[in-house]
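hey m, so remember when u said the tokens were messed up on ur end? i reran from scratch. heres the input so u can diff it against urs
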Amino acid sequence: MNNISPKVQNQVAMLQQVQQQLQTILSQKAQYEMAAREAKRAQEEIKDLAEDAPMYMSVGSVIVQKKKDVVYSKLSEKVETLELRIKSLEKQEKMLQGKFEQLQVQIKAALEGKNAPKAA
């Protein structure tokens, strides 16, 4: 990399940083999507149960008995919050993907310009 200009070296470093940020966002998004699926699955499971069916919720390190409507409501809130986070991460992902592609084009153009044969 000694024969590459400092500007291109900086762009390569920025590209690597954007790539790491993108990987982090994709990982967080996958975790939130999995948690949302689990909450939705729990909602489906309790939807058809009787109103007086015993329900338990984890509150910190304690499990307490709650009414069905309270549990369902908490699950709905959880799904809504997770879906908002997922949308936010998708916006960040899209922005970073655009930045990543832009940097790739700039680096490629700089490297091709440097390696292009000079007209005589």
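this time it looks ok to me. The helical segments are 6-47, 68-115. if urs says something different then somethings off w ur setup not the seq
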